[in-house]
Specification:
The structure is a homodimer of 378-residue chains. Chain A has 378 residues and is of the alpha/beta class. Helix content of chain A is 38%, strand content 18%. Chain A contains 14 helices and 16 strands. The two termini of chain A are 30 Å apart.
């Protein structure tokens, strides 16, 4: 089980400084949670992920169910032992894949390159590759086309075998362009599933409920009130947020205001550097985001002077580190010129160097935000 | 400049134990030299390469000339600073590319999957993509089709700008299926180029001459005597050796017997674990080989129980490390099962884990061979 201790609350916003205690150590909050979808922070080893100041990782129930399967992970002693990561782990429930492998795929929306769509998703409509019913979701495996059924019970059972410190309830993440009636129906289902997840849990692992409600403020409130009333150990705030960040920050505050103050809140799948202050002000304690690692694998460095596309030849002669103000081991040892050379020479090493730096940079930003809350500046 | 000190000579073979002193530290010989073609040990950082017990790296003059260009490397302070590698570096001359981008390409022969060919290469014959003349070789860039001329002067000039501790003379590496007349003609040219390289050198970097001679024993002897008579700081033994290892070991002994005992000898591009004792007995002090790193990127681990194809599902449930007798950090932290999962999930991290382990394993074998020479057992 987990314990959450609030050390300081902001007087100017919903921000709070805290400590999340788990069976695998503590997390200083607010914190970015590193993404390790398939039990690996892409391109890094677990020891390296630690050195980037990553405190907690989130892994993917759906993907790990397909490969290598939760039984195998359990045989290896659970996720922590399997990947030699002795710090806290979260597993999401597979609910996001209901969107990403469903309507998200149909409409060409991805987690990274956000697109809006004018196509409205109406009540009763089904995505091409999966079928959503009141019992759960019938997926089609992208590996071998095999049908996979995931409902609240199945998700919890898989997550218990995986052995994370914190699990998430199985939900439906509705598409951002869903019509009100679609979201109302989906939300009712997600709420039923939330209770089923609580009932299905047999382990001592923590379980977070997920607040949904699409882009409708009243439905978000309704969901926060309902999910908040259930005996979860913490709360996730889900949904494909789209591109309207101002709306998201407002929604976050509105949602967290309705949730029990003493329980931790996790924002699912968001966290560009420029969004961090807004997320923190919205009362979020942890959030996960693929941005630092994904962009690294595309040659992009996040720095104190903005994003740098390191594939550009202009950096070849540059002897400075990625970010002269960064204290990470990559910035200590390697120049922009060398990293650009390696990227242009199609080597693997620069993807690692950029992943390491970006994660370190993101975690450093969060460290700074924690200091600001402590000083009462946020 | 370099200094070479022989600590012990075997009474049973041509093997010797030595110390090669360079401006960037010492190499205990006999030693495997790690391959860092484009100024990067593929998938690793320079600090990691050090932790694999790699003492010296060899980089490629031709590839670095194309990308990022020797002027840029020089601007960064030379190869050592550019890649943050403070140990010794060798640069080969581009002579092997005369084969690999020439007849080697035409005949589908690669450095790894050795194939023999029944097509004989006759005197006067030219490969498709390059033109070999007495002055040098006209290459066609694989990047943009631009023509690149490399002769002895050009190669030395590039290598001096790159700044390695040890350079190699520009030579022609003839194809293994070359007719005697072809090799005679090629060898005469390589010998002329050797003198030109010595004359072209302006720096204090060490320069090794390269012994060629194809598969003809008398030509190999002739080359050893001629190259051995020139004031080189050490000697390379080149040539695409093909699959006949017994022939290679015999040739090595015959060649090194003719070379000045006090100078170091480097075997170019050979070194499977099973070949190491024969190479060492043949009087070789250093050799480079892509096998540990190349095979790693194809999912193969070298272990004390042989080569393991880690892509196989049978390893998924295996909790043992890659090699239970290995002391490397990968074997300390990760199981075969985890590495197999990551390979099957198409992650990048396992390629690194295997590269690290394989290099450490190869260097450990060489460490053991050095001990055997010391004990007089080889």
């Amino acid at each position: 089980m987990i314990q959450f201790k609030i050390l300081k609350k902001s007087k100017k916003s919903s921000a709070r400084l805290g400590i999340l205690k788990t069976p695998h150590g503590e997390v200083e909050t607010p914190a970015l949670v590193g993404v390790a979808t398939q039990a690996s922070v892409k391109t890094l080893t677990s020891e390296e992920a630690q050195r980037t100041k990553t405190q907690m990782l989130i892994m993917n129930t759906f993907h790990l169910h397909l490969k290598p399967g939760e039984k195998l992970v359990k045989k290896h002693g659970g996720l922590h032992k399997f990947m030699n990561w002795n710090r806290p782990i979260m597993t999401d429930s597979g609910g996001f894949q209901v969107f990403s492998l469903g309507f998200g795929k149909d409409l060409g929306m991805s987690k990274i390159l956000r697109k809006t769509s004018n196509t409205s998703i109406e009540k009763g409509q089904q995505p091409k590759l999966l079928k959503i019913t009141d019992e759960g979701v019938l997926f089609t495996s992208y590996i071998d086309g095999r049908k996979i059924f995931l409902g609240p019970k199945e998700s919890i059972k898989i997550q218990e075998a995986l052995g994370a410190d914190i699990m998430f309830a199985f939900d439906e993440c509705p598409p951002p362009n869903a019509a009100r009636e679609y979201v109302e129906h989906s939300l009712a289902r997600t709420h039923v599933w939330a209770r089923m997840c609580l009932k299905a849990r047999k382990s001592k692992q923590a379980l977070y409920g997920i607040v949904q409600g699409g882009s409708f403020e009243d439905l978000r409130r309704k969901s926060a009130e309902y999910i908040g009333s259930l005996p979860f150990d913490g709360f996730g705030i889900g949904g494909e947020m789209g591109v309207d960040k101002a709306w998201m920050f407002k929604m976050l505050k509105g949602t967290t205001d309705l949730l029990s103050e003493g329980k931790p809140r996790h924002l699912l799948g968001n966290g560009y550097p420029e969004d961090m202050p807004g997320i923190v002000r919205g009362g979020i304690d942890t959030f996960d985001c693929v941005v630092p690692t994904h962009h690294a694998r595309h040659g992009v460095a996040f720095t104190s002077v903005g994003r740098l596309d390191m594939k550009k030849t202009k950096f070849l002669g540059d002897k400075k580190p990625l970010d002269p103000r960064c204290e990470c081991e990559v910035c200590e040892h390697y120049s922009r010129g060398y990293i650009t050379h390696l990227l242009r020479a199609k080597e693997v090493t620069p993807l690692r160097l950029l992943t390491f730096h970006n994660l370190f940079y993101f975690h450093s930003l969060m460290e700074a935000l924690r200091k600001e809350i402590k000083k009462g500046k946020i």
